[in-house]
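hi! just following up on the protien thing from before. the input was this:
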Amino acid sequence: MKTFVLCCVSLFSCILVCFADCDNLQDLCPTATTGKQTVFINGFPCKDPANVTASDFKSIKLSHAGDTHNLFRSSVTIVTAVDFPGLNTLGLSIARTDLDVDGLVTAHSHPRSSEMFFVSKGTVIAGFVDTKNQPFQEVLKEGEVFVFPKDLLHFCLNVGNEPAVVFSVLNSQNPGVIRIADAILDIDQEAINSLVKKLTSMSSMEGNDMQVFNLPWF
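and the predicted 3d structure came back as:
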């Protein structure tokens, strides 16, 4: 009996080790930017330590607002270890979401990460749906935080009277994204953007304050 228990404990320990994320075996591992990839691994190879500099751990990609001149009046910029070498092996990604008035980020999920959602400016509705189809949503104001659990569909909508800015932290260096609208509908984004520009131009010529699109829905 003791032998059986010992075997079970040993097996369970091995399973835990196999399913745990590996800790870093070195202090630094910025992504090595290579040409043609010949070795395929789960992650990215490390840069030569002799060539690592402080600039590998700095990114300016989120310092500028994204282009919200589109159908949904929104822009999402995700920075992963591909774009930000210093994130490699740290299990982190960062993102910036810009929302014009009535701007919407449609339902999507990140199959490999959870997301911490921080409102830097404006008023935003953020929500997600669990596997029982139960919705959870809150109105967030500047300085407030919401969390989207891993791989659950979530969205956000600007319900304020000014553009909103949101910053997110995701606990994966490559969170991935699955957009439901893109998966279901064959959307010609260039045609839509062209239509938006034409409508905006017409509205401007008429000299009124008509909003081109109003999207207070999920």
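Helices lie at 2-19, 180-184, 189-206.
The two ends are 57 Å apart (CA to CA).
cheers
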